[in-house]
Structures are given as C-alpha cells and as structure tokens.
C-alpha cells in the first residue's frame, strides 16, 4: 500500500485542473460568505466552532445558512490541502508551485480563525472587512498558482513593453483601494450581518451620514478606477499589445461598467439584498480579472539589458 502511494504521480495537466478547482472553491466561499452576511445570518451560530454548543445546527434558517457556509469552508480547506499534496506529487516536480500551494491551506486556516473571532466579537465591522480582505489576498495566491501551472508557462519570459506593464500593474493597488472602500460602505449600511433584534456594530465615524459618505467615496473611487481601466485599454491597443494581455483588460472594462450600473441601481433602490450580493460577486470577479491582467502583463525586462534588435546592427557595423 505504501509503495502504491509513493508511486502515485500527477501530470502537469492534472495539476493545472486541480489548481483551477482550488481557485473556483476559494471564489465560491466568497459568494457564500456574502450570502451569510446579506441574509442576516452572521450570528446564526452565535458560538464557534460549534453551533449553539452542538456540532450540528438547529433547524433555524439563519443557523442553517451560517453552518452551511462553515461546511463549504471545510470543503474549501480540503480542496486546498489536496492541491498542496498534488503539487508534491507533480512530475516533473516544481518547487515554485509547491511553495505557492502551501499558502492556500494556510490562508484558509487563517480565515477560519479570523471568522471565529468575528463571530465572538459580534461581527465587529473591522474584523468583517479584514475577513473579506483576507479572502481577496488568498485569491492572489490562487491566481498565481493557476497562472504558473498553465501549459506553456515559461519562468524566463520577460515583457519588453515597460510602460504597458507598469500601467497594468498600477490597476492592482487602485482596485484594492476600491474594494476596501466598498467593504466600508457595506459595514456602514443596513446589511450588517445580523438578524432583526440582534445588536450588531456598524461603522459610524460620520454619525448618521456615515453610509452616505462611504457610498459616495466608494462611487467616486470606482468611477476613477473605471476611467483608468479604459485608459490602460486604449494604451494597450495603441501599442499593439499581445492579445493575451488585451483580452483580460477588455473583460475588466466590461465588468467595471457593469459594476457601475449595478451600484447605481442598488443605491437608488435602497440597497436590496439581492443586488448587493450581485455587486459583491461582480467585485470578486473584477478583482480576479485584475489579477489575471497583471499576470498576463508578465515580468519586466531589466532596463539595463538592451534589446537584441538594437545590439545586432552595432555588432555588424563593427564587423564591417
């Protein structure tokens, strides 16, 4: 039996599919986590890791929703541990993939601990925002793992168009700021994560105007981010960038435009739960698209290394 396990190997294609599955699972848990908060089930199980002191939830709607999200989290943990084990059995073995894969179960474990503290502290808005931010950080590792596991990826590939690479990279911190502002708007809004009758903390640094202030700031930042995405897209088109880079940036522009429409409608309709969930889902997809665009931009070629096309004429001139 031990010999059979030691002889088990994974092909590059199989590991690539496993990496995609882990990325999908880590994205799914963001969607279900948002559903818990928006359905008012954040304290459906007021203790952790048990639910009302039991290993199973009572037959109550909020408890079932919250416990179901915990069950999904356990499955995500299994998926990330699985992709880590497969990374060590991949042949040919690649140390870079194994190192990145380690980050996924570690991130899920950190999420479990942070989620427990969030429940114990009655959904403190700062902890809830940190919970979402950690999810987005784990997705960074998952996207890097998928990108490097893809067939044809070459560690030595360097991008020559430095302005284009920096322009695309600049979208990453910008989108992170927009996401942070969005979590602040949610933390100040009516969807605090608790059910009717529960006392839940909210952001109130501007008093009764906190929600209006955070929504307007978030909206202004999102609008500026959309303009930046369009400008980067135009830049890539004019510089005839590779289609593998222009494609995700094009998708990014579409997602940001859709987010603008959804955000405006949800605000004008007084933040209905369903639209807020769609907004969170699209925000997650937008973040993934930004990460994919940055990965597609590639690594920078050192500015000290001259282009070979420029070196060749000078060599020929000396030879003649």
Care to describe what's here?
The chain has 320 residues and is an all-alpha fold. It has two domains: 1-150; 158-320, no CATH class. It is built from ten helices and two strands; from the N terminus they run αααααβααααβα. It has helices at 2-6, 12-38, 61-89, 95-120, 125-149, 162-188, 210-238, 243-268, 273-297, 308-319; strands spanning 158-159, 299-300. The chain has a two-stranded parallel ribbon. Helix 2 packs antiparallel against helix 9 and helix 5 (125-149) runs antiparallel to helix 6. It starts with a helix and ends with a helix.
Question: How are the SSEs placed, and which strands pair?
Answer:
Layout: H1 2-6, H2 12-38, H3 61-89, H4 95-120, H5 125-149, E1 158-159, H6 162-188, H7 210-238, H8 243-268, H9 273-297, E2 299-300, H10 308-319
Q: Report mean pLDDT, rounded to a whole number.
A: 85
How big a fraction of the residues is strand? under 5%
Helix vs. strand class: mainly alpha
- The radius of gyration computed from the alpha-carbon positions, rounded to a whole number of angstroms, is 23 Å
Measure the end-to-end span: 70 Å
At a glance:
The protein has 320 residues and is mainly α.
Could you list some keywords that capture this structure?
mainly alpha, disordered C terminus, 2 domains, 2 strands, about 325 residues, two-stranded parallel sheet
């Amino acid at each position: 039996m031990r010999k059979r396990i030691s002889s088990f190997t994974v092909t590059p294609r199989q590991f690539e599919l496993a990496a995609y599955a882990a990325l999908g699972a880590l994205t799914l848990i963001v969607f279900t986590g948002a559903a818990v908060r928006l359905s008012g089930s954040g304290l459906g199980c007021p203790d952790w890791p048990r639910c009302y002191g039991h290993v199973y939830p009572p037959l109550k709607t909020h408890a079932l929703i919250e416990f179901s999200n915990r069950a999904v989290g356990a499955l995500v943990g299994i998926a990330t541990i699985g992709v880590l084990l497969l990374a060590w059995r991949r042949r040919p073995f690649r140390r870079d993939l194994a190192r990145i894969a380690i980050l996924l179960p570690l991130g899920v474990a950190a999420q479990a601990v942070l989620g427990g503290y969030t429940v114990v502290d009655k959904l403190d808005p700062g902890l809830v925002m940190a919970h979402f931010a950690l999810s987005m950080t784990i997705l960074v590792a998952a996207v890097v793992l998928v990108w490097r596991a893809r067939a044809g990826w070459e560690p030595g590939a360097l991008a020559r168009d430095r302005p284009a690479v920096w322009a695309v990279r600049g979208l990453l911190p910008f989108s992170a700021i927009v996401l942070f502002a969005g979590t602040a708007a949610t933390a100040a809004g009516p969807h605090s994560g608790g059910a009717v009758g529960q006392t839940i903390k909210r952001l109130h640094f501007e008093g009764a105007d906190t929600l209006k202030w955070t929504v307007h700031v978030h909206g202004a930042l999102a609008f500026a981010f959309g303009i930046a995405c369009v400008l980067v897209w135009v830049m890539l088109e004019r510089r005839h960038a590779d289609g593998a880079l222009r494609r995700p940036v094009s998708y990014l522009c579409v997602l940001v435009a859709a987010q603008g429409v959804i955000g405006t409608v949800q605000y004008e309709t007084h933040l209905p739960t369903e639209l807020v969930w769609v907004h969170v889902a699209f925000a997650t997809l937008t973040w993934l698209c930004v990460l994919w665009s940055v990965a597609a931009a590639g690594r920078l070629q050192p500015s000290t290394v001259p282009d070979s096309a420029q070196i060749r004429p000078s060599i020929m001139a000396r030879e003649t």
